[in-house]
Amino acid sequence: MSEKDFYNTIDKEAVAEYKDKGSKFIAYAFAITGVDDFKTRLITIKELHPKASHHCFAYRLGVDGTTFRVSDAGEPSGTAGRPILGQIDSKELTNTLIIVVRYFGGTLLGVPGLINAYKNAAALALQVSSSVQKFKEEIYRLEFSYPCMNDVMRLIKQQGIAIIRQDIQLFCVVEISVQKNREEWFLQQAKNLYDISCKKI
User: Of 78, 99, 134, which one is at a domain's C-terminal end?
Assistant: First the structure.
């Protein structure tokens, strides 16, 4: 088993607050699974803080960590999203979102002040949560005829493999998420089953 079988994210949602010259920065940290999850979280936070002056954020996604997005949400360019992402990256996290809500306190902080405030708010939120190591997973589509159903489900249940979607009819399709450390074993077992197609998607 190699380090490539794992990725790091946060174990729970967290909230932290940072204040500077009357401005209040409330940071929310979330473990997310994809872009749709991010969109839902952002909508929720905006509804929770409709009168905030800014809703800035950064996230990194994917087990290889190559997908990311930052937003300054009206703050001067580079003063919010990038400092937030910097804190996610400093902990080597992925599948992680931080949204920082700002209530303006009447005093301008300037570019260095804003960078410091968003960085500190994000860092505080990550201090409240803990980093957790998770196995990377691969998604497979199983296709088989109905008489094979019991054998397939027994195999899935045996290893506690997660079912993402299933369409059970005369011809069945089941999409599953297999942890990297169980992938070779699972593929070998699937080959032993009669009349089953197993494809990575």
Answer: 134
Total residue length of the chain = 201
Q: How far is CA 85 from the centre of its chain?
A: 13
Instruction: Identify whether the C-beta of residue 124 lies closer than 8 Å to the C-beta of residue 17.
Output: yes
pTM to 2 decimal places = 0.74
- Which CATH number is 25's domain given? 3.30.230.30
From the number of C-beta atoms within 10 Å of its C-beta (0-12, 13-18, 19+), residue 28 rates as buried
Q: Determine which helix (DSSP H) or strand (DSSP E) holds 15, and give its type and residue range.
A: strand 14-20
DSSP state of 161: P
pLDDT in tens, 39-93: 999 999 999 999 999 999 999 998 788 899 999 999 999 999 999 999 999 999 9
The number of distinct structural domains making up the chain is 2
Q: Give the whole-angstrom CA distance, residue 72 versus residue 82.
A: 8
**Which range marks the domain in which residue 23 is found?**
3-134
End-to-end CA distance of the chain: 22
**Conformation bin of residue 175: beta by default, left when phi > 0, alpha when psi is -120 to 50:** beta
Q: How far apart are CA 112 and CA 115, in angstroms?
A: 5
